Amino acid sequence: MTFDLLITGGTIADGTGGEPYRGDVGICGDRIHAIGDLSAARGREVIDASGLIVAPGFVDVHNHASNEMEGGILNIPEADNMLRQGVTTLISGNCGGSPWPVGAHLDAVAGKPIRQNYGLLVGHGTIRAQARVSARSAAEQDIARMRDLAAQAMDEGAFGMSTGYFPDFVTTDEITQVARPIAQAGGVYASHIRSEGEGLLEAVAEAIAIGEGSGCPVQISHIKCYGPAAWDKADRVLDMIDEARARGLDVGADRYPYVASFTGLVSLVPGELRVEAQRRGGWDRLRDGDLVAAAREGINRQIGVVGGADKVMFAPLDPMPEIDGRRLDEVAGERGREPWETALDLITAGSVSCIYFTMKEENVRTFMRHPAVFAGSDGHLRVFGKGVSHPRNYGTFPRWVGHYGRDQGMFAVEEVVRKCSQMPAAKFGLHDRGRLAPRHYADIVVFAWERIIDRATFEEAHQYPEGIVHVIVNGGVAVRGGCTVPQSWGRALRLG
């Protein structure tokens, strides 16, 4: 038989967690046709994978490819920082925000030369905005309208609904009700939970309750203990997940392999002050005489939560040389201002993102080891060399495999591959991806177990990983010999 693409002589880690074995993979069109001893077959194109691992392409179900960095995938479909990690499928629309309408966005993406497969969650915050529910609790008719919009999003191909950064007036009951059409359509509920610090346990309990009340599988996004005051909560969080799973609930989490997060500087402003600033017309209103004391106290409190102003490193998406890669305490000292004042100055001037060094390495490992936790980057599509970047944008999956799997001995190759491919694919309904099997889509990564490693650091974040030799997307070679090819084989995906 002649295959369109034949991968020969590799060690196959098929994504199931089973023992790797020597074999060949034969691909016809966009699908795997056969796996095993194909020495009698021919290929129109042949990849010699001798000495290499042949695995399912990695599946990143938590990223911000839809709307970050100059507009996300619609503006930079050629960005390869994810592809060269071995990621063949992205699910975006996380943390409560997504493009709208879902169907129109996916149609637009399908018209672009995208490098990976791409799917979307609908954001609960986006649904709220479309239902014209402003900064207030939702009335019964509001919730009915949001349910209709959630059903529409699922009809148009969303893989589920995300939440994140939701203020106190967004109730557990509201989210539960809006999530019910998501569950009915087979979608997942993915949540940047209400608190990852002091209120972590309560927030995990809320996410579990929403899953139980709505019928949705629950995905806790980028699970973490945020700030020193929360560092002792990791074991209890995992106990809560285990208890829920023992009751039959599908509750899990994703985790990036770094001790620092990435989000807006505005996260230093407490939620109630954000709402008040919005109501009054802008961040500068936090300097009003009746608010300035609360702003000082609230921002200082948040700086304390992260462990101090030296734990906040500026990482604007657009270059700002005067602050790029520098710490809040350093910039404040140069300006002769208090850290809280400097933070407010920069928030008022425009959107600034930051890297927050808030986590404990021991907790990162504890979460990663848990059987219900798999890999997710929380990353962005980036233009190589532009602006300050978090290393997860280039190194999440090679770091899971090479640093924690091989070098730290936390996972055998078959298990870490499963946590990067089959587990996320199965959780999000990608039933014909994430595993090497006949009739599955030919999304494949070929890597060197002895060499795969991340090279991106917090100081030099625009660095591609090593050891990813070939990447195949829908049967087309997207990375050959470690280099991205000009062709684009990605597709816009819809649930079902």
Helices and strands, with pairings:
Layout: E1 2-12, E2 21-28, E3 31-36, E4 42-48, E5 53-56, E6 58-60, E7 87-92, H1 102-110, E8 117-120, E9 122-123, H2 124-130, H3 140-155, E10 160-163, H4 172-184, E11 188-191, H5 200-214, E12 218-220, H6 234-246, E13 251-255, E14 260-264, H7 271-280, H8 292-306, E15 312-314, H9 328-335, H10 339-349, E16 353-357, H11 361-369, E17 373-375, H12 392-407, H13 413-420, H14 422-427, E18 444-447, E19 468-473, E20 476-480, E21 483-484
Parallel strand pairs: 1-4, 1-5, 6-7, 7-8, 9-10, 10-11, 11-12, 12-13, 13-17
Antiparallel strand pairs: 1-2, 2-3, 5-18, 14-16, 15-16, 18-19, 19-20, 20-21
Helix pairs in contact: 2-3, 3-4, 4-5, 5-6, 8-10, 9-10, 12-13
Describe this structure as you would to a colleague:
By secondary structure, this protein is of the alpha/beta class. It folds into two domains: 56-259 and 359-429, Metal-dependent hydrolases (TIM Barrel, Alpha-Beta Barrel); 262-357, no CATH class. It is built from 14 helices and 21 strands. The strands form four sheets. Strands 1, 2, 3, 4, 5, 18, 19, 20 and 21 form a nine-stranded mixed beta sheet that branches. A six-stranded parallel beta sheet has the order 9-10-11-12-13-17. The chain has a three-stranded parallel beta sheet with strand order 6-7-8. It is globular and about 80 Å long.
